[in-house]
Write a structure and sequence with these properties.
The structure holds 2 protein chains of 2 kinds.
Chain A (H helix, E strand, L loop, with lengths): L1 H6 L1 H25 L4 H12 L2 H12 L2 H19 L1 H30 L10 E5 L9 E2 L8 H10 L5 E11 L4 E2 L2 E7 L3 H5 L3 E4 L14 E4 L1 H8 L9 E4 L2 E9 L14 E4 L3 H4 L10 E2 L2 E5 L6 H17 L8 H8 L4 E4 L6 H38 L1 H9 L4 H42 L10 H27 L3 H6 L13 H32 L10 E6 L1 H4 L3 H17 L3 E6 L11 E5 L7 E8 L2 H6 L3 E4 L13 E5 H7 L9 E4 L8 E9 L14 E5 L10 E7 L6 H12 L4 E6 H8 L1 H35 L1 H9 L4 H33 L12 H27 L3 H6 L2
Parallel strand pairs in A: 2-11, 4-24, 5-10, 7-9, 17-22, 19-21
Antiparallel strand pairs in A: 1-12, 1-13, 3-5, 3-12, 6-9, 7-10, 8-9, 14-23, 14-24, 15-23, 16-17, 16-20, 18-21, 19-22, 20-21
Helix pairs in contact in A: 2-3, 2-4, 5-15, 6-13, 6-15, 6-16, 7-11, 13-16, 13-18, 13-25, 15-16, 18-25, 18-27, 18-28, 20-23, 25-28, 27-28
Chain B lengths: L2 H11 L5 E2 H11 L11 H10 L3 E7 L5 E7 L1 H25 L6
Antiparallel strand pairs in B: 1-3, 2-3
Helix pairs in contact in B: 1-4
The chains are: A alpha+beta, B alpha+beta.
């Protein structure tokens, strides 16, 4: 009722006016009938009615809510004033938009990767079932979350009495192309109970259940809504189609709902298949092998049972589970350690996420950075508003003098800053959208397909509204209070010009400036540290030539047949690639360098010595020469180092130093640990190669044992080659594809240019460097603008003082010195406060640095010099203006 | 004049049928034998308030001498309100009369 009246108040007033007019007309008619002349009749009618405006006002007040109405007046006044002062308004809105936008963007990212819960039924009752970190786990690890073997999952299911449902899942890319360069789809393996436990329903067709997940089951697949739309155009007849996965046709039986992306935040799946179909995709049967760690298990708790209680129960059943799942070829003490393994349950509310693990911390560090940018922007705006308040002193004094309450005037000034903030938020959302898409693109460059569902949900809206309100108070309240804290009479009498303002008048703005400078130093320090980290990593000595292509070839034929047949096929493939004119050389390498994947084993160099964990690789003789890794001592592999000949190894310098701290490694032997009952493998060290990075360029040089490819007696997996180009490296992938297709077009190829892969692997550092430089420069720019503003204002206010000084014989130089000196004091205090703060922050972010200490003196010097330089520049411009004042002109204005 | 009194007078003047503001003003003046001098304008905020509370309803019509005028009529709740107010007022008036003129009482 009240709201309807409020919104109709204008129409009602018009209605009332017509009604009043009608009264006057009727009364005039009556008066004329009584014999008056028409003008007299009208006047008498008006007199009889009384005060028209008063009646209208009475009714209007009845219909309105006064606070709202005056608020509207304030808003209109503020908008008018802001439009008059366009330069100020644009600068204010822009700096707020950058500050608020950057904060919103980072918060949105944090929200997706850290705060939001899984898109399934009652995610708060889901727990991840896993072996605690540090458990004895040996074997091969595949998928993004290799936490459990299939045998363990089955045994837990058999023994557990606490979960209402339990399922296992796994994920990785699967090739859909029948030969040639691989085309991967993100595939989710799910055990039969998964959909029931998660409460996820199909959008089309059906989901699969327990009966679809039995040994030897039919190849069926579900596809995600997104994949259905993206790859199959939302085809309604999709249920009659099949999809090829590693050369096998899977029947599509359903499409999942759009909201369900799996359990891995930051990723999404294209295809989901039952666990039982795994043998069709993997020659090494991961359902049978108890050494294959490839599953992650999830249980649903009944209500009222906590994750802690579940952990207790799991601990109780763990011995039985471990006893029946011992990997077959474990060594003696390995079995004992395996049997001591236990199990735990941990909440899975927001899912698992490698994106979160990698970027959660970085996002928080960056959010801290953007918060500082916003603070600086606030300080700037506060400073500008303060200046405006001073300029409007007379207007405010008049309003106070004619009876406005201080509260009312403060409110009016706050409305002004609220409008600025609101516009800042509006423009900030655009900034936020741009920034999130930049970050997500960068993530995708470095981590493969990343899917982050950026939303404006309640969390984000609340956060943005919160910082907006805070911003408004921070930058608006102090200036408003200060502008209205004056005796009207004094303010109106004191004409700014002519009186020299004491330093007190600038105190507050000076404090703001010191804060701005201090915070800018913090950000600049960070920017320099992260940029130098990136630079260090880009120029780190990896120990070999990165201008090569690494190619992985996989096909059934590479894993089947006799050992000799498999070896022969590998040699044919190598020769075919080497024969291509674009190729200079091809080396075999079982390991992909710097890929984050590795192969390690324990070795002994002496029967009595300590075990030593070393990395391994199997390479062909030309590997070292091709990659420019010098053989420091001894010899390279030779053509005669074949399976029938004695086993030999070329170890890395780091290995030699670690295994033989005192003597020479050459000529010694090493043994690789083997399960009991099998003879230990004795290998002679014939050469020492220079160090090269193994799996990550951030790590130090690690011990590596190189074994000859020709002595490999497994050859069950993909064939990996390192290929050196003759001409441009970009021609190589196509050349390799062509050569391999000549041997067998069904072979699938995975091809990467190593230097590019390394560069993309530096995603975290690039992101930190790029964004911290952006924020740091922004902060410095804002601080410089603030300094310039304050100094200009000071010069204007003190122009008569400077005029008198010059009239009395002061040089222009002296005036410049006064102004720049004042700015210098502010900058110096700011630096003195900011540097310790920045060093503290850098120490906290130490783990993100590479090749330099948080207290790196050169870094501090660069940040200080940069800030001092732009600070002095900002002060010099007004100083020069002050020095060019004409004393006569200035004094005449008195 | 007491606020409640003006409301009551307005409602009373509508008992015989719908009327517009001009008529109501004159009716009140005549019935009170010009004792209650109401500034005619002050009638309108009162009418507005009564309409908001649902005691009267309004519509635009044409007057006897062919002028557009806004007519008010009594609603059922207005009629109830008038009855209640009238009896309350009469009680009050009787009480005041007793205080002012005790001999006449009882």
């Amino acid at each position: 009722m009240t709201w309807r009246r409020f919104f109709n108040r204008r129409r009602r007033d018009e209605d009332l006016q017509r009604e009043i007019a009608s009264y006057i007309a009727l009364e005039t008619d009556d008066n004329i009938a009584r014999g008056m002349s028409p003008p007299d009749a009208h006047d008498a009618a008006v007199r009889k009615f009384g005060n028209v405006t008063r009646v209208r006002e009475d009714v209007y007040v009845m219909n309105t809510m006064m606070p709202l109405d005056t608020l509207w007046q304030d808003v209109r006044l503020a908008v008018r004033l802001l439009r008059r002062d366009k330069g100020f308004t644009i600068a204010a809105i822009l700096s707020l938009a950058l500050g608020i936008g950057a904060n919103t963007a980072l918060f949105q990212l944090l929200d997706v990767v850290r705060l939001r819960s899984l898109p399934v039924a009652a995610p708060d009752r889901l727990v991840k079932v896993s072996l605690p970190p540090g458990s004895e786990r040996s074997g091969s690890f595949s998928s993004r979350w290799p936490e459990m073997t299939f045998a363990q999952f089955e045994e837990i299911g058999r023994h557990q009495r606490i979960f209402t449902g339990l399922f296992a899942w796994s994920s990785r890319g699967v090739n859909t192309a029948d030969g040639g360069i691989i085309r991967e789809v993100d595939t989710l393996w799910l055990s039969g109970d998964a959909f029931g436990v998660l409460g996820v329903r199909p959008e089309l067709g059906r989901v699969f259940g327990r009966d679809d997940d039995r040994p030897g089951c039919a190849p069926i697949a579900l596809i995600s809504h997104a994949y259905w739309q993206r790859a199959l155009g939302g085809d309604a007849s999709v249920l009659s189609r099949t999809i090829r996965l590693e050369g096998t046709s899977f029947e599509i039986v359903g499409v999942t709902t759009p909201g369900f992306y799996g359990l891995d935040v930051g990723r999404r799946f294209d295809v989901a298949i039952p666990l039982c179909t795994d043998p069709l995709l993997n020659p090494s049967n991961r359902l049978e092998t108890r050494r294959s760690w490839w599953l992650s298990a999830v249980g649903r708790l009944p209500s009222g049972v906590s994750a802690r209680q579940a952990t207790e129960h799991l601990k109780a059943i763990a011995p039985a589970v471990m006893k029946s799942t011992v990997p077959p070829d474990s060594s003696g003490d390995g079995i004992e350690r395996y049997l001591a393994n236990t199990l735990q349950a941990s909440p899975l509310l927001s899912g698992v996420s490698d994106v979160r693990d990698t970027f959660g911390t970085i996002l928080i560090v960056l959010l801290a950075g953007t918060a500082i940018v916003l603070l600086i922007a606030c300080a700037n705006l506060a400073s500008l508003l303060l200046a405006r308040g001073t300029a409007r002193q007379k207007e405010i004094a008049v309003r106070l003098a004619i009876g406005a309450s201080r509260q009312r005037v403060v409110r009016q000034l706050l409305v002004e800053s609220a409008i600025l903030v609101a516009a800042g938020v509006g423009a900030g959302t655009i900034v936020a959208r741009g920034l999130t898409s930049v970050v997500v693109t960068q993530l995708a460059d470095g981590m493969g397909p990343v899917f982050l569902d950026i939303q404006w949900n309640l969390n984000v809206l609340g956060f943005t509204a919160g910082i907006a309100a805070l911003t408004c108070l921070l930058c608006g309240l102090a200036p408003a209070l200060k502008a209205t804290a004056l005796a009207p009479a004094a303010a109106m009498r004191a004409d700014g010009r002519g009186t020299t303002q004491g330093p007190d008048r600038f105190r507050f703005r000076r404090l703001l400036l010191i804060g701005q400078v201090g915070l800018s130093v913090v950000l600049l320090l960070g920017a320099v540290l992260f940029t130098r980290t990136l630079y260090n990593l880009l120029n780190v000595n990896v120990g070999f030539d990165q201008q090569v292509v690494v190619a992985g070839l996989s096909h059934r034929s590479l894993a089947e047949g006799t050992l000799d047949e498999r070896q022969l096929l590998r040699e044919r493939l190598r020769d075919a690639i080497a024969a291509h004119p674009a190729v200079a050389d091809v080396a075999a390498s079982r390991n992909q360098p710097l890929s984050g994947r590795w192969w390690n084993d324990y070795v002994y160099v002496d029967v009595s010595s300590e075990k030593l964990l070393s990395n391994f690789n199997r390479v062909s003789p030309n590997y070292f020469r091709m990659l420019g890794i010098p053989i420091l001592k001894g010899r390279n592999f030779l053509p005669q180092d074949v399976r029938q000949a004695p086993a030999v190894a070329v170890v890395s310098d780091a290995f030699a130093r670690k295994a033989f701290p005192t003597g020479d490694a050459l000529g010694h032997t090493l043994w690789i640990e083997t399960p009991p009952g099998q003879p230990a493998r004795r290998i002679e060290i014939v050469g020492i190669a220079a160090d090269a990075k193994y799996e990550d360029i951030r790590s130090d040089f690690e011990p590596v044992v190189h074994l000859p490819a020709a002595q490999d007696d497994e050859l069950r997996e993909a064939a990996w080659f390192v290929v050196k180009p003759r001409g441009p490296i970009d021609d190589l992938p196509a050349a390799i594809e062509q050569s391999v297709a000549g041997v067998n077009p069904a072979i699938a190829l995975h091809v990467t240019i190593l230097s590019r892969q390394v560069r993309e692997g530096l995603l975290r550092e690039r992101l930190m460097a790029g964004l911290s430089v952006a924020f740091g420069s922004l902060a410095a720019l804002l601080a410089a603008i603030g300094l310039y503003g304050v100094m200009s204002y000071m010069v204007t206010r003190r122009s008569s003082e400077f005029g008198i000084r010059m009239a009395l014989g002061a040089h222009r130089r002296d005036v410049v010195r006064i102004v720049v000196g004042e700015a210098g004091v502010v900058v110096a205090i700011g630096l003195a406060i900011g540097i310790p703060l920045g060093l503290g922050a850098a120490a906290a972010a130490r783990s993100l640095l590479f090749g330099l200490e948080p207290t790196d003196p050169a870094t501090i010097a660069i940040a200080v010099a940069f800030l001092a330089a732009i600070g002095l520049l900002a002060a010099y411009l007004p100083a020069r203006r002050a020095s060019r004042l004409d004393p006569v002109e200035v004094l005449r204005m008195e | 004049m007491l606020q409640g009194a003006l409301d009551m007078l307005i409602l009373r003047s509508l008992v015989l049928g719908p009327a517009h503001g001009h008529t109501i003003a004159h009716a009140i003046a005549q019935r009170s034998e010009q004792v209650l001098q109401v500034e005619h304008g002050s009638l309108y905020p009162a009418l507005h308030r009564l309409e908001d509370r649902g005691f009267v309803a309004s519509f635009w019509g044409t007057s006897e001498n062919n002028r557009k005028a806004k007519y008010y009529r009594l609603t059922p709740s207005g009629r109830k309100m008038l009855a209640a107010e009238t009896s309350r007022w009469e009680q009050l008036a009787r009480a005041i009369a007793q205080v002012l003129n005790p001999v006449d009482g009882q």
